[in-house]
Amino acid sequence: MVDRSDINAVDDAAWEQAVAREAVIRRLACKASPNRAEFLKACRDLGLKRSRLYELISAYKARPVASSLLAAQVGTPMGSRRLPDEIEAVISGAIEVFYKSLQKPSINALQKEVRRRCSQRGLRPPCWTTLRDRVAAIDPAELMAAREGAKASRQRHHPVSGSYQVERAYEVVQIDHTLVDVIVVDRVHRKPLLRPWLTLAIDVASRMVAGFYLTLEPPSALSVALAIQHLVQPKFDWLESLGIDLQQHQGPRRIRFRGQVGDDARRAGAVVCVGNHPLSY
Prior knowledge:
Helices cover 44% and strands 12% of the residues. Strands 1-4-5 form a 3-stranded antiparallel beta sheet. Strands 2-3 form a two-stranded antiparallel sheet. Residues 1-5 and 268-281 have low confidence and may be disordered. It has helices at residues 12-30, 36-46, 50-62, 85-99, 107-121, 128-136, 140-148, 150-157, 221-232, 236-241, 260-267, and strands at residues 173-179, 184-185, 192-194, 197-203, 209-215, 271-274, 277-280. By secondary structure, it is an alpha+beta fold. The protein folds into 3 domains: 7-69, no CATH class; 85-157, Arc Repressor Mutant, subunit A, CATH 1.10.10; 164-232, no CATH class.
């Protein structure tokens, strides 16, 4: 029997079953000794055995509310452990000393170690799935700290403090891809095709989109190259085609790459062609 003080935690099907049981069991509970025919009819109506119906009547008399007739949960409660304390101690010890080591042993190796320790103590070893569940319950940050060190654990599982600072526009441009939340359809039959991928080149200083590339192909080096092409090429004709007044939207007319590659190209007097537009260094 289940004592449920919070009715909101009970699912609708279980609650409706308890209400239907109460309508029948209330009549039987009010009588000191219900007759046999009425009792058997209640068993048939509720689909219960006589012993189960006696249990429900006793529970309802002790607590005459519908929640006292809720069915008990079948099976082992989630998160509970049924192994003896001695075996649990062996598993915990093997995990702490053997599994959380710099050698990074596998679960199969852990199982062999647990079997060896159980054999020394005359205990029955647990199965592989039990050890797998115990390992899965370990905090990943704690496990990495034990196996790879506290520094590696902090870098992997803890947020990085500080901020990324740049001094001027176009000093750093970050490129990333995202799957657009629209579906492209064909022109003739309007059948869905794919969701397009959008590659964005974002200037870190201004937080503005400096270039982009839209395609149905998944992200690749070509997507990055074409986004960079859109970033460095003049955009006057493209903006005019969109009906944007260039007099009100003045931006940098020329972008010069900086860094080791740009410096080497500049010293060599190289001319890089992006599309049909030569870019002199």
